[in-house]
């Protein structure tokens, strides 16, 4: 391994399922948690051995709802991660949480386990919209949870918000934004709701039970978020992410900058040594297959072998063409854009040569621009990001 690693640890449990969510997470299988945590610890240990204890710059507990686990499980996973990898000094260690799980005792336990950044799914500060989203907290509880995390010592907090919700007005969004900005979290992730096919919310909208979100209004909400966050001193460093200076999410930057990452747990994805691979999604199958793979030697602990043994549902060696497309797609999400020098150093060819047609056409319609040797989205391009990205991937 030539690079430091970003380590993602998946926790596929939630107290209840939110009707808009299509993540790989489950409610009602809490009896699996102890065996699951043991399997996850085993996977961490095996990867640490196979990769000869690589340097890890960031750890991210995502889900699902990692804060739903008993803190002793987080402690155990952190101890295993520390014993299996070289956690670099100052490594960013994030835990995703639901507001209802944030209590002084839990926060203290997370901090003593080594968590130094907490990310909380607030989504909205409007109680009616929170109810529509099936969230288990009220606006007041979300604010209280934030204050608790701060009072108990977290100095790096992200809040997740959603806009473009069914029936949401611009005034409601403005109210949520101004109250959240007053709290001064170090980081804000703000995503437009996507109606994922097959989710209850998607079905409710299709059947007319819930109003279809208005795309033009969602675009106005995005512009309002940009304006208000900028006035409050936040830097819009990625299409859907804002940070106070120096507080960008280092773990996510590793994805956007096409660095290597290892994901453990069901459904987790990795990009490592030229391979992309994804773990089987079912937590029960995952537990069984970790046990079946545990006797493999270090040398056999390779994507292709793990796929044959059923632990991975896919494992593909990535070719240069695909890597170039991904480099463009991920890098263009960032305000810094894609540096031509870095692209050339990685692939031996410039962006303008490799993608001359795409860049010319997208620049002509005002979605892309060159600035200081970097290719970037324009303001209009940020609104139509997906249309730009799909031009770079096969
Ligand atoms: S809490 Fe998060 S991960 Fe769990 S169901 Fe809701 S949105 Fe999905």
Strand order of the largest sheet: 7-8-6-5-4-3-2-1-9
| CATH domain class of the largest domain | Alpha Beta
> How many domains?
2
Low-confidence stretches: none
Give the ligands present: iron/sulfur cluster
Helices, by number, come to 17
Outline the biggest β-sheet: 9 strands, mixed
User: Which structural class matches the secondary elements?
Assistant: alpha/beta
Query: How far from one another are the termini?
Result: 27 Å
Average pLDDT number: 96
What can you see in these coordinates?
Helices cover 42% and strands 21% of the residues. With 394 residues, it is α/β, with parallel strands linked by helices. It has 2 domains: 5-255, Alpha-Beta Barrel (TIM Barrel), CATH 3.20.20.70; 320-389, Arc Repressor Mutant, subunit A (Orthogonal Bundle). It has a 9-stranded mixed β-sheet, sandwiched between helices. The longest helix is centred in the first third of the chain and has 18 residues, at 33-50. It is globular and about 55 Å long. Bound molecules: iron/sulfur cluster (SF4). Iron/sulfur cluster binds at residues 14, 17-18, 21, 23, 25, 63-65, 98, 121.
């Amino acid at each position: 391994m030539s690079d430091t690693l970003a380590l993602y640890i998946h926790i596929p449990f939630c107290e209840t399922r939110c009707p808009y969510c299509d993540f790989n997470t489950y409610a009602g299988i809490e009896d699996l948690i102890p065996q699951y945590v043991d399997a996850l610890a085993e996977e961490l240990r095996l990867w640490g051995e196979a990769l000869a204890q690589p340097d890890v710059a960031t750890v991210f507990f995502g889900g699902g709802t990692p804060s739903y686990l008993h803190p002793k499980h987080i402690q155990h996973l952190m101890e295993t991660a520390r014993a299996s990898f070289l956690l670099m000094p100052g490594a960013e260690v994030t835990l995703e949480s639901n507001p209802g799980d944030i209590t002084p005792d839990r926060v203290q336990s997370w901090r003593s386990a080594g968590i130094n950044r907490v990310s909380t799914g607030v989504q909205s500060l409007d109680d009616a919209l929170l109810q529509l989203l099936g969230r288990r907290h009220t606006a007041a509880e979300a604010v209280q949870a934030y204050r608790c995390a701060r009072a108990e010592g977290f100095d790096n907090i992200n809040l997740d918000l959603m806009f473009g919700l069914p029936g949401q007005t611009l005034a409601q969004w403005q109210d949520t934004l101004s109250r959240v900005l007053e709290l001064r979290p170090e980081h804000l992730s703000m995503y437009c709701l996507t109606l994922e096919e097959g989710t209850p919310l998607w079905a409710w909208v299709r059947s007319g039970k819930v109003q279809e979100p208005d795309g033009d209004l969602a675009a106005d909400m995005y512009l309002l978020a940009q304006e208000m966050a900028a006035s409050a001193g936040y830097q819009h460093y990625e299409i859907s992410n804002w940070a106070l200076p120096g507080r960008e999410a280092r773990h996510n930057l590793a994805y956007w900058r096409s660095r290597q990452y290892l994901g453990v747990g069901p459904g987790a994805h990795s990009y490592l040594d030229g391979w992309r691979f994804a773990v089987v999604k079912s937590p029960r199958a995952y537990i069984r297959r970790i046990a079946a793979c545990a006797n493999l030697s270090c040398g056999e602990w390779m994507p292709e072998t793990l796929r044959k043994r059923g632990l991975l549902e896919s494992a593909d060696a990535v070719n240069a063409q695909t890597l170039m497309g991904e480099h463009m797609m991920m890098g263009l999400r960032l305000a810094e854009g894609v540096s031509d020098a870095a692209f050339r150093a990685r692939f031996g060819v410039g962006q303008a040569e490799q993608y001359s047609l795409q860049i010319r056409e997208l620049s002509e319609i005002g979605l892309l621009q060159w600035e200081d040797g970097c290719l970037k989205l324009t303001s209009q391009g940020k609104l139509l990001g997906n249309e730009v990205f799909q031009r770079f991937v096969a």
